[in-house]
Amino acid sequence: MIKTSTGERIGQAIIIVLLLALCLSVIYPFLYMLSISLNVGSDAAKGGVYLWPREFTLYNFEIVLGNSVIQHAYLITIARTVLGTFIGLMVTLLMAFGLSYRLLPFRQSLLTYVLITMLFSGGLIPFYIQLNNLSLLNSFWVYIIPTAFSAWNMFVMMKFIQGIPDALVESAEIDGANPIRILFSIILPLSKPMLAALGLFTAVGHWNDWFAGAFYVSDQNLIPVQTFLQQLLSAQDISTVLGSNNNQEALARGTMLSNVTLMSIKMATVMVSALPILCVYPFLQKYFVKGVLIGSVKG
Amino acid sequence: MLARLTKYRWQYLMILPAVVLLFLFSYIPMIGIQVAFKDFHIGLTMWNSQWVGFENFAFLQDEQFWIVVRNTIYIAVLKFITGFPAPIILALMINEVRHGGFKRFVQSVSYLPHFFSWIVVAYILQSLLTLDGGLVNQLIVNMGFEPIFFLGSTEWFRPMVVASGLWKEVGWNTILYLAAITSIDPQLYEAAKVEGAGKLAQIRHITFPGILPTISIVLILSMPSLITVGMDQIYPLMNPANQPVADVLDTYILRSGLQQGYFGMATAVGLLSSVISLLLVLFTNQMARKFNGEGLW
Questions:
Q1: Which among B266, B284, B251 is positioned nearest to B42, based on CA atoms?
Q2: Which of A69, A102, A267, B151 has the greatest CB tally within 10 Å of its CB?
Q3: Which of B109, B113, B271 sits opposite A123 (nearest CB)?
Q4: What pTM, to 2 d.p., does this model score?
Q5: Contact at 8 Å (CB) between A295 and B175?
């Protein structure tokens, strides 16, 4: 047995301490925000709430979850995440499969057509003008259509599909299946892990996007949760959340309301937006690590 | 030829939606760059507005613009010199952990911030750093010092952006390096131990050379986005108090174009920024050809 020297053991200890500090820096802010959101607002404002609530209450969450603006924003977020991920994967997969045929006439030109868009862009303003021309501004579809195709994902998918043995596709062709059938009955089942990983990244992108909601949409009925959070971030008083008269019930209980602070409402809202990700995270880990590695195979 | 095209009609049909989307949302905006040389208002189209030559480029003589350029470069450089080596060091550290369970725990926890939006990061910073009841200022006051207004300070803005950016992505960026480390032949380490090489020598002579190709690929791929310093991150943290250091090219475009309506000028700034990115890509591709023997495409 090779014995470990004292120097090595000290090294191990230092590494473990540093890594623990890193983990703590990730976990602690969430614990802190959670404890503030579960504490009576006026009490938390006095300071001293570090790890767990001192005066426990669910009232902050009741206000946030009972607010119709937030509920609506949540629906928008869910709708765009589901639709955006599905349509995005579909459009991208269709092109990836089409271009995986190496003998396709004009294949090289089409690849260049895609590549150019990865290297150069018109920039934000011409893009915005085009959204305006297509009447996509102030429409739900602005979340879905302009970003549906992903050049990067297309190249990853194409590489993956080209790795599937030709014999499988050829035997189906001999049986007379057309490419659409082949895609759905042969390629799709074999691509599940790859699609799961890319779908996960796409979905997280949709869930976390605040930009489109803040600049391409002015109708408050169309903003997603992240854009709502962005507006709330710089809010100076609670009326952003409570001012609209859709919170009658909460306003009726005025005495309770005086215990709510802007900070406690903010923390409750941010926890409501982050909790779904925290909940699904442990189950999705194996997919995303695989996803990064698929993507890293040089395209 | 026609026979070949009809033979592949299904494939073309499948490709069509993406080709149309790229045309509408990538190529037409490229044509729309002409707005940089025109007097454009909402209501006109990019075709019927007046040509004005280089009038929209007057910002080049604006002092404010050069402050913005300096801020952008400053943040880009700071982010690069911290964000590039950090995941390599972290990966090497994680690799040295012998307890498998602890190793997986560290990986899971350190990947987590990648999945949260920059808005959530801004909330975390606000909850920890705000003057009224923020944790950090409570501690500072308890220790008998004056509270610091981190969120509205020109001195603290850059450290805040760099640190939170590092915090969010460092774990995630170790994935590639950890995969590269796993693929190193274990016999090399055995041989080194027999030769009497210590841990540090093993890292220097085996692990590090083993992940060097990965390091160079990551370096190449990070070049093009060097000057995109992350509007997603900066915009939510920006306020009138820290704007002198916080304003970068992307926020400048956003403000002058979408908020103040100087479309032509904002397009011109965007054009400059796109051209710089393109030059960086082409330059890196040349370098990659030279050193790796093959380019990115």
A1: B266
A2: A267
A3: B271
A4: 0.89
A5: no
